Amino acid sequence: MDSTMDAALGRWALELAGRGWPVLPLRPGAKFPDWHRGDRCPGTGQCRGGHRTPEQIATTDPDLITAAWSRAPWNVGVFPGPAGLLIIDCDPAKPGPDELDGWTALQVLAEQRGGPLPDTFTVTTPRGGRHLYYRAPAGCALRSTQGHLAAAVDTRGWGGYAVAPGSVRADGAYELLDDTDPVELPGWLVQANVEHCVTAGSGRGDRAVAVPGAFAATAVRGECGKVAATPYKQGRNKALSRAAYALGQLVGADVLAEDVARTELRAAVDSWGDVASIAKDYAVIETSLRAGRHNPRRITPHSTRTAGTRRHSAASPRKDTVAWTNG
């Protein structure tokens, strides 16, 4: 990476911060924050009073930004939650003859919902995806989602971040496609982003579950409460895997809708505020839910005993370095 590109990255960081959008350095040539996970917090620098997440330390301060990008060719991460934005991430199509890319799937959803899908600030990704920046309606705190709107369509709100224009990877660059100021998120997209699916396919008759009964609701609160309350350095992956497996068993037993379990588990993960691990944590949820679903819990009217929980280990965490503002 030459000095001209290095300087361009710093200018992008300053421009986005000037719009009031907090930014944070991402590793050069990559899309991960240069920051540590909560379970590896050194308790120094920015974290002297307790672990702080990338979202909490992202900044619009031009002096901090200038100093940081003068030291290394960081890519740029933008944090939509504190900026009052929601970013819709349209991915390329997954392998398969009938799979739609995210941009096409979002347009189809707009037609089904009656639209509109207005032009807004848009960034293209190296693999042909798009990031659409919208202003979140006043008083509406929208969190990040994965595949909730449509296949290959994620959102980045509170608890998430996006790679900003100007950033580069080995496979290409994030480029500004439309510099229209972000427009307000249409009402139909607000509704689609927050509504929950209320049916679950059990694989054994596909019986619809409108809302969890008292037994299932208690289980969801208990398991997700344990996940949210797990301290930084005390086996979060294990706690999440065990909770998702236990709820997956209830899904397999036809007493809990899978989308309800998934949504509540993700909310518990989001409460950790550990942006760098969200994708991995969501993957743990999917793997463990699926495993539990294939080993449904046996439930009788007189039994409230919990079935044994099979333990699953998540992939080894990435070795992060201490970030730009630490010290």
Automatic annotation (TrEMBL):
Residues 293-327 are annotated as: Disordered. InterPro entries: DNA_primase/pol_bifunc_N. It holds the Pfam family Prim-Pol. CDD domains: Prim_Pol. Residues 13-189 form the DNA primase/polymerase bifunctional N-terminal domain. This is Bifunctional DNA primase/polymerase-like protein. It comes from Amycolatopsis sulphurea.
